[in-house]
């Protein structure tokens, strides 16, 4: 494939984590949007990939096996995307199993806190929306909306689920270094997701980007569905400064018509090396 003219999207979610579309529906939407290469990057799971693979083959789309890992760094939560992973790798499988258990434990603790706030049955509620997939906070948000406690997911986070709110539970995700090792061991490529979304000061950002690079990180998401042109420019500046390659992704979840869509974002500026120079595209 001529990678120069690719319509490529390396960050999106399905019902295997907190997305609204099944892997097949997501692939079909990518096809409608003329996406040629897509990475399915569900939070902490590869469980949507088998279904996505079948659908992608049918639509002539190249599927990259991805995961958006939850990670801890300096007591903060980071998201690190692993791309082109060997999904049979035993360390990867162990790491994902541990994350699944950790998420279940966290969900139980979130539900207890909600119960303390007068909202019973939240664990069953969140599980219903997770529908057998991994449990994430947006599933609690869906439950809180359905029960009439809040009007929007934004409100559910603001009132209950976000950092330091009524039902927030802090979790010790694997360290950034551990996640980078897991990705490396599974022969994947590591990308720091949405680098400007962490509520860090400029000096914390500089520390993060240099530690990420030093620990073996290879890329940074510099074009994102919801980035403004200024944010794209800032991210490119950081990526160039810390010698990280550029990645692009919609971070599509399918929550609303107004959110970003697969494959719909500005092209990667030519000033930066695309992360897909390390991928078999
Ligand atoms: P978790 O990984 O279970 O902690 O859930 C994190 C996910 O919640 C993110 O990937 C987003 O999809 C979603 N999220 C985070 N903050 C908000 C917010 N303020 N409003 C709506 N969704 C959010
Ligand atoms: Mn999410
Ligand atoms: Mn994320
Ligand atoms: Mn994401």
Characterization of the model:
- This protein is α/β, with parallel strands linked by helices and 281 residues long.
- It folds into two domains: 3-95 and 176-278, TIM Barrel; 96-161, Orthogonal Bundle (DNA polymerase, domain 1), CATH 1.10.150.650.
- It contains nine helices and seven strands.
- The protein has helices at 23-32, 49-59, 90-116, 122-130, 137-146, 153-161, 176-185, 202-214, 229-241, and strands spanning 8-9, 37-40, 62-73, 76-83, 189-192, 219-224, 245-249.
- A seven-stranded mixed beta sheet has the order 1-2-3-4-5-6-7.
- Strand 6, helix 9 and strand 7 form a beta-alpha-beta unit.
- The longest helix is centred in the middle third of the chain and has 27 residues, at 90-116.
- The site of one manganese (II) ion has 4 residues, from loops.
Task: Look at the structure and give the mean pLDDT.
Answer: 96
Low-confidence runs (pLDDT<50, min 5 residues)? none
Query: Strand order, biggest sheet?
Result: 1-2-3-4-5-6-7
Bound ligand species: adenosine monophosphate, manganese (II) ion
CATH superfamily of the largest domain: Metal-dependent hydrolases
In CATH, the topology of the largest domain is named TIM Barrel
Task: Assign an overall shape.
Answer: globular
Number of helices: 9
Terminal residue distance: 6 Å
Integer count of domains: 2
Q: What pattern of helices and strands is seen along the backbone?
A: EHEHEEHHHHHEHEHE
Q: What Rg do the Cα atoms give?
A: 18 Å
Biggest sheet layout? 7 strands, mixed
Report the CATH architecture of the largest domain: Alpha-Beta Barrel
Query: In percent, how helical is the residue content?
Result: 25-40%
What class, by secondary structure content?
A: alpha/beta
Please give the CATH class of the largest domain. Alpha Beta
């Amino acid at each position: 494939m001529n990678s120069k003219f690719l319509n490529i999207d390396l960050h999106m979610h399905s019902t295997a984590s907190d997305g609204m579309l099944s892997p097949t529906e997501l692939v079909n939407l990518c096809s409608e949007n003329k996406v040629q290469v897509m990475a399915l990057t569900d939070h902490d799971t590869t469980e949507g990939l088998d279904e996505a693979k079948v659908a992608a083959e049918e639509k002539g789309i190249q599927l990259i096996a991805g995961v958006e890992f939850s990670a801890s760094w300096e007591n903060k939560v980071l998201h690190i995307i692993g791309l082109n992973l060997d999904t049979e790798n035993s360390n990867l499988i162990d790491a994902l199993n541990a994350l699944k258990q950790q998420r279940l434990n966290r969900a139980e603790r979130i539900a207890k806190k909600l119960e303390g706030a007068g909202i019973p049955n939240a664990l069953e509620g969140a599980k219903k929306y997770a529908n057998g997939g991994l449990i994430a906070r947006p599933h609690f948000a869906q439950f809180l909306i359905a029960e009439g406690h809040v009007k929007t997911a934004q409100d559910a986070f603001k009132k209950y689920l976000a950092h330091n709110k009524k039902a927030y539970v802090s979790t010790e995700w694997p360290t950034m270094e551990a996640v980078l090792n897991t990705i490396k061991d599974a022969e994947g490529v590591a990308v720091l997701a949405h680098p400007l979304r962490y509520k860090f000061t400029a000096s914390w950002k500089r520390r993060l980007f240099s530690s990420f690079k030093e620990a073996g990180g290879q890329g940074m998401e510099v074009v994102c569905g919801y980035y403004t042109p200024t944010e794209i420019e800032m991210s490119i500046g950081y990526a160039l400064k810390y010698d990280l390659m550029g990645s692009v992704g919609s971070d599509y979840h399918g929550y609303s018509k107004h959110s970003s869509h697969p494959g719909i974002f500005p092209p990667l500026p030519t000033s930066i090396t695309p992360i897909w120079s390390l991928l078999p595209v």
